[in-house]
Design brief:
With 97 residues, the chain is an all-alpha fold. It has one domain. Helix content is 62%, strand content 0%. It contains 6 helices and no strands. It has helices at residues 4-14, 19-33, 40-43, 49-61, 69-80, 89-93. The radius of gyration is 15 Å and the shape is globular. Heme C (HEC) is lined by residues 29, 32-33, 35-37, 41-42, 45, 55-56, 58-59, 62-64, 72.
Length: 97
């Protein structure tokens, strides 16, 4: 008989990123993105996985150096994916994230 834990592990591997990875990605964002610009420019976006991937490549081309690129990608897709509601106006209007 299959173990429920094994099934859970498969589900996690196939589906959404786990919470620990997302939290790592958020720390990575603070460390990697903030030296160049505020996070407003990041958090006002709602992008697909492919589009976030391209953004990360583009930022790397401009000098961003990642220690955990996978975690930051999972964090961005999970938090600012194109399936999420658009950023509220006060977030994109007054400079606060
Ligand atoms: C070496 C400097 C640098 C780093 C590090 C950096 N960026 Fe950027 N980023 C830029 C510049 C320059 C722009 C253009 C700013 C503008 O248009 O005012 C930009 C713009 C953006 C934009 C707006 C869309 C676009 O492509 O212009 C997004 C989204 C973005 N950055 C995401 C990120 C994320 C996420 C990180 C961290 C993983 C990051 N950036 C790290 C330099 C950087």
């Amino acid at each position: 008989m299959r173990s429920p834990l094994l099934l859970l592990a498969f589900a996690l591997a196939a589906g959404a990123a786990d919470q620990a990875t997302i939290e790592k990605g958020q720390k990575e964002e603070q460390r990697t993105c903030l030296p160049c610009h505020s996070l407003r420019i990041v958090h006002s976006n709602r992008l697909s996985r492919a589009a976030w991937n391209r953004e990360l490549d583009k930022m790397a081309g401009w000098g961003a150096r990642y220690t955990n690129r996978d975690a930051i990608l999972e964090y961005l897709v999970a938090t600012y994916g194109d399936d999420k509601p658009v950023a509220p106006p006060e977030i994109s209007a007054d400079g606060r994230k």
